[in-house]
Automatic annotation (TrEMBL):
InterPro entries, per database record: Glycg_phsphrylas, Glyco_trans_35, Pyridoxal_P_attach_site
Functional note: Allosteric enzyme that catalyzes the rate-limiting step in glycogen catabolism, the phosphorolytic cleavage of glycogen to produce glucose-1-phosphate, and plays a central role in maintaining cellular and organismal glucose homeostasis.
Gene3D superfamilies xref list: Glycogen Phosphorylase B
Catalysed reaction equations from the record: [(1->4)-alpha-D-glucosyl](n) + phosphate = [(1->4)-alpha-D-glucosyl](n-1) + alpha-D-glucose 1-phosphate
Assigned EC number: 2.4.1.1
Pfam families cross-referenced by the UniProt entry: Phosphorylase
Swiss-Prot/TrEMBL cofactor(s): pyridoxal 5'-phosphate
Family the UniProt entry places it in: Belongs to the glycogen phosphorylase family.
Protein's recorded name: Alpha-1,4 glucan phosphorylase
Membrane-spanning ranges: none
Keywords assigned: Carbohydrate metabolism, Glycosyltransferase, Pyridoxal phosphate, Transferase
Organism name: Candidatus Enterococcus moelleringii
Length: 812
């Protein structure tokens, strides 16, 4: 695509769409104009990709996830289309800054954190690897709440992300399906002597899909992320006259539950789950039927992935359609279901394992409940005599009046994977050991990954430039080629160039911090970053205790030889998570205390940036020197911000948890700061019940002093929250062993402090982190899913022989 051509097209489209010239248009109008040129350019490939999958009878995977967290799509689509530089320059020549247009786009936040972001990294990689795979989820009217701080407290505001429309989605009315809820169901013999369900009462809603193109990186492949929105079917308009009646329906796709580990608003949540499961499975089966094959072969054409347990009802819904509507026998349907379904477990925290009460599921989706009951009955019957009775009792789906969704997902699928080596091992040896005994071959590991291009080429253009100049550009499409950078670990020019790029990013972040917080931070300080959801197990509190320790050290000895440090936090707390909100308040008050204390001579700053989301992550990560990954060992299934930060040359300070272990294996012990209890030691404490946090408090004078600051007025304005945190640590015996890891953490931080001051060594460590990040590309991860779990194969760009699109870039 040529710049001149683009400029002419842009002006023409702006005139057609808004009857305007560039000089009159707002950033939003310009953004929409650009968006419409882009979607028009890839829509043909989108259609073609779909047709190719159908014509070539490609097996396709469907990734069911109750959350997607794509962030902004403008620049990422431009990059993948091969347009980024041309468009940026062409716009510039018209006096338009691409950055200003990117500002306008709302950050699409239909997810809470890691789980949803993983789903979106996968969408990018699946398309970029030319794999036939699509997303299936919910189009929430309101995304994750926007976070503000008022008086240091988190305040939640609604995220009205659709207010100005959405350039990337297409409403596909023709692909709508009906979803039935509630009422009574009983079985009756039909004309062919088959038991069929008869429904009484309940209500039906229409699920309308909104499709978003998932543009592959320079390969002319455009897959689909299909998000479902609820509507009242025209035939039912009369039933829903009042605003309240309509609201009950509309609520179904209104809000994302702002918590990925505890469930609330339970009935609505369950209804959301059934809604997108039923709509997705129905539309897949409708497509399959059009292909004209018998159901016997469906597993050769369709793979359905259950991302965490929220879509676990896929198992029962798939069964329902096969046996109730397609006259497939139970036994045959069950065999096919297992072959089609696969499941990813994302947590080992018992309180996050999803369960539903029988009455609630009967109320929301009675036929699904009946099917689950029958699956459970047959499971017990089939296992009796094969497995010990107590094992069967522990693994069956329905126990004590509750439906265990993980059990349903494992029993009803052929693959269960964890998301990092340690996590997958713990699933096998502890959390899901009973299932592992029964189905050893179903268990496997797929370490998470990140969309490498977004987190480097888009977020960190200064580093990308250095990399491209040093090792060429092959790493852009082959992430593992970033390894060539290892050849330059002794090259001072490269080391300096990377350090210069980092410095540039820090200058930018410092300006942003000044703008939004009014805090002066020096780009020469160490930027120490902890960004992730606020959760007790992630231990933001441990970070804070160390900050307090440094503060006291400096108060005592203002000449202390520490390199100046800026501690940067980004974290949302679930609105109902009281403790997490107290930690936010306390961090904000510590920030006030430290940032306004002139006596410490700017050696310490604490910055809590509000409203952590993908866009903020893209600002912070390129500027990070230190990556805080300090969860209690065994609690973080994988983590992915650890990978993003590593890729951007931050040095990790970490416990041996989740993918941190694999990061250590990749960079070597000398290029990461590991500390703290191991998973084995944590489990030993659990077994021996001999952890005693008060002892640590009483015996460690540093800890004593730091903790007292929470309740003795040293940290102002936290009378209540300080006490609450103190109680969690002492009265409730410190569930996440914060005090136990404190001393080791301080030592590791001191190593960081010293290494940073050895500038050359630090630059080398940083380079080695970047060079070894390739293995964490989600391109890699999805290829493993494709080969081992879904059995789908890459397609080659349909028009690669057509000349025009040979290089994977798009024509206007
Ligand atoms: C990557 C990412 C996460 C996940 O962070 P973890 O540290 O792995 O928990 C959460 N939120 C956003 C916005 C992200 O980009």
């Amino acid at each position: 695509m040529e710049k001149t051509e683009f400029k002419a097209k842009f002006k023409k489209r702006l005139a057609e769409k808004f009857a305007m010239e560039v000089s009159d248009a707002s950033a939003n109008e310009l953004y929409q104009t650009l968006g419409s040129i882009m979607t028009a350019a890839y829509s043909q490939d989108w259609q073609q990709t779909w047709q190719d999958y159908r014509d070539q009878e490609q097996k396709q995977a469907y990734y069911f996830s109750i959350e997607f967290l794509p962030g902004k799509m403008l620049k990422s689509n431009l990059l993948n289309m091969g347009w980024l530089e041309t468009v940026e320059e062409a716009l510039q020549e018209m006096g338009i800054s691409l950055e200003d247009l990117a500002e306008v786009e709302p950050d699409m936040a239909l997810g809470n954190g890691g789980l949803g972001r993983l789903a979106s990294c996968f969408m990018d990689s699946i398309a970029s690897c030319g794999l036939p795979g699509n997303g299936n989820g919910i189009r929430y009217e309101y995304g994750l709440f926007k976070q503000r701080f008022v008086d240091g407290y988190q305040v939640e505001l609604p995220d009205e992300w659709l207010q100005k429309g959405n350039s990337w989605e297409i409403r596909k009315e023709s692909k709508a399906v009906d979803v039935h809820f509630g009422g009574n169901v009983y079985l009756q013999k039909d004309g062919k002597d088959q038991l069929k369900p008869v429904y009484e009462g309940g209500y039906t809603v229409r699920a309308v899909p909104y499709d978003t193109g998932m543009v592959g990186y320079k390969n002319n492949i455009v897959n689909t992320m299909r998000l479902w929105s609820v509507e009242i079917p025209a035939e039912e308009e009369d039933r829903y006259r009042s605003i309240e009646d309509r609201r009950v329906i509309e609520d179904l796709t209104s809000v994302l539950y702002p918590d990925d580990s505890n469930q609330e608003g339970r009935k609505l949540r369950l209804s959301q789950e059934y809604f997108f499961v039923s709509a997705g499975v129905q539309s897949i089966l409708r497509y399959y039927k059009r292909l004209g094959y018998s159901f016997d072969q469906i597993n050769q054409y369709i793979a359905i992935h259950i991302n965490d347990t929220h879509p676990a009802m896929c198992v029962a819904e798939f069964m329902r359609i096969l046996i109730d509507e397609e006259d497939v026998s139970w036994e045959k349907a069950w065999n096919l279901t297992i072959k089609v379904m696969s499941y990813t477990n994302h947590t080992i925290m018992a309180e996050a394992l999803e369960k539903w009460s029988i009455p609630m599921m009967q109320e929301v989706c009675p036929r699904i409940y009946q099917i689950i009951e029958e699956i459970d009955r047959r499971f017990v019957k089939d296992m009796t005599g094969v497995q010990p009775a107590d094992l069967i009792e522990r693994t069956r789906i329905i126990q004590n009046g509750q439906i265990h969704m993980a059990n349903l997902a494992i029993i009803g699928s052929h693959s269960t994977n964890g998301v990092a080596k340690l996590h997958s091992d713990l699933l096998k040896s502890v959390v899901l050991n009973d299932f592992y005994v029964m189905y050893p071959t179903r268990f496997n590991n797929k370490t998470n990954g990140i969309a490498q291009r977004r987190w480097s080429q888009l977020a960190n253009r200064s580093m990308t430039k250095v990399l491209n100049e040093t090792i060429g550009t092959s790493w852009n499409s082959h992430p593992e080629d970033i390894r060539f950078l290892m050849n330059f670990a002794e090259d001072d020019k490269v080391l300096d160039a990377l350090a210069e790029a980092k410095h540039e990013n820090k200058v930018k972040l410092a300006a942003y911090i000044k703008k939004v917080k009014g805090i002066d931070v020096s780009p020469d300080a160490i930027f120490d970053v902890q960004i992730k959801r606020l959760h007790a197990y992630k231990r933001q509190l441990l970070n804070l205790l160390h900050i307090m320790k440094l503060y006291f050290d400096l108060k005592e000895n203002p000449k202390l030889a520490i390199h100046p440090r800026v501690f940067i936090f980004g974290a949302k707390a679930a609105p109902s998570y009281h403790y997490a909100k107290s930690v936010i308040k306390v961090i904000n008050e510590v920030a006030n205390l430290i940032n306004n204390d002139a006596s410490i001579d700017n050696k310490l700053k604490v910055v809590f940036l509000a409203n952590y989301n993908v866009t903020l992550a893209e600002r912070i990560i390129p500027a990070a020197d230190v990556s805080e990954q300090i969860s209690l060992a065994s609690k973080e299934a994988s983590g992915t911000s650890n990978m993003k930060l590593m890729l951007n040359g931050a040095v990790t300070i970490a416990t041996l948890d989740g993918a941190n272990i694999e990061i250590r294996d990749a960079v070597g012990d000398e290029n990461i700061a590991i500390f703290g209890l191991t998973e084995t030691e944590v489990y030993r404490y659990y077994q021996e019940h001999n952890y005693n946090s008060s002892e640590l408090y009483h015996n460690d004078p540093v800890l004593h002093k730091v903790l007292n600051a929470f309740v003795d007025g040293t940290i102002p304005n936290i009378a209540f929250e300080g006490q609450e945190i103190m109680d969690s640590l002492l009265k409730y015996n410190d569930e996440f062993f914060v005090l136990r890891d404190f001393a080791a953490y301080c030592d590791a931080q001191e190593t960081i402090n010293q290494n940073y001051q050895d500038r050359r060594r630090w630059k080398q460590i940083s380079l080695k982190n970047i060079a070894n990040a390739g293995r964490f590309s989600s391109d890699n991860t999805v290829k493993r899913y494709a080969e081992d779990i879904w059995q789908i194969e890459p397609v080659f760009a349909h028009n690669s022989e057509k000349g025009a699109n040979q290089h994977g870039t798009y024509l206007l």
